[in-house]
Amino acid sequence: GAGSINIALSDNSELIGFESGGRRTTSLLVDGDYPKIRSLFPENTPIHATVETTALAEAVRRVSLVAERNTPVRLIFTDGQLTLDAGTGEDAQASENLEAALSGDDITVAFNPHYLSEGLNAFDSKYVRFSFTSAPKPAMLTAQDDLDGENSDDYRYLVMPVRLPNQ
Q1: Residue 77: pLDDT above 70?
Q2: CATH code for the domain defined by 39-159
């Protein structure tokens, strides 16, 4: 979408550069095998939750403002609702509720707010769909046009949850 891409290789082919749309990036070839990324994505996900993308991204930003550094944001999915909260004990606390469609069991997960925000900001769809196998396993985010529609797996974002004490 940005037009042409310029690609440059170093003489020893260990360095590659890309330039397009006024942006540049460089990558260095490292020894070893690239991780088997496809195996990280869950094949079966019995729990699905769909939330409005923009509303969730804004709620994560607001709730995470009270969280200390490295404090996760907890997402509690129940039928028809998502509750986000951060902060515990005597620390500052925040909580917000959003409309959500849930298919499967209720689930409570916690994420690093920075990683979750990065994933949400990559979607331009009206809704984002969370697909879970269980709370301590990675969650897959995909785009969805309608609250009760089908998801699109053209782009998938995998985010690792933070373990909660009772998991």
Answers
A1: yes
A2: 3.10.150.10
